[in-house]
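Thanks for the sequence, V.! I ran Ubiquitin-like protease family profile domain-containing protein right away. Repeating your input here for the record:
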Amino acid sequence: MEMHISNEAMQLLSTQEWLSDEVITAYFELLQQRATRETNLPKIKTLDTYFFTSLTNRGPSAMQGRFKKCNINELELVLIPVHYNNNHWALAVYDLKEGSIYWIDSIPDDKSTELELLRSAGNTLFGNRAWYLAEVDAPCQNNSWACGEFTCAYAESVARRAPIDFETGNLRDQLRLQIAQRKASPFSTGQPYSGVLRNLYRPRQQYPPSACKELEDVWITKRNLIDMRKFLQKTTQRKSRFLLKTGINKVRLYQKDIILILKRLERNSSGV
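Predicted structure:
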């Protein structure tokens, strides 16, 4: 399918304005075309800019139709451009080959809730597994408008399983040229990595699973731990219950459950 983009969208690439979903969609389509054309590259699926918002509003089960026309067993990577809060672009990645989920963002922040949502969706869409979740340490923007081209550059590197080590000075110019030429090209000279991808994409923040057996399918974040400790400090009644919220999951815990979780996390070196 040929990539289409309007003149108005192309003009954004010559400004210092936020990039529209039309620009992002066009570039991700070029990445999809390249992966189909060049058989030495990983098999990928790029999703549209509305996927994450739809996932947030409708839940994982409603997203299964997005994969009807592809063989999930043949996919290695799923690339998701995330329009976060309608004012920021970031990249989410499913590495189906290794069972990892990455969040790559040009403005670092705690994205544990978003990763938990992606983990839950991954279990529904691709089957239950012990997903490795991480926010990847990557080049960051130094202005208020460049998140779109950073997201495209992240995606281009990941689509080749290559290091995210591009120069940040002229990303928008490179993106404009690639879209004008209708051909996705590397933003850096980094070569594809043959090893385990999580060894290449070092985490800025990693989120381990709960150490509590009763909650082994629930991921506990730093925010959860802070709230649980506050609950213990304020609560004296054993029958009081704490509502643990992690992404789309909700679990009610008694005081003894929280104490057990905290003790096991303290003993477990993989704790938060």
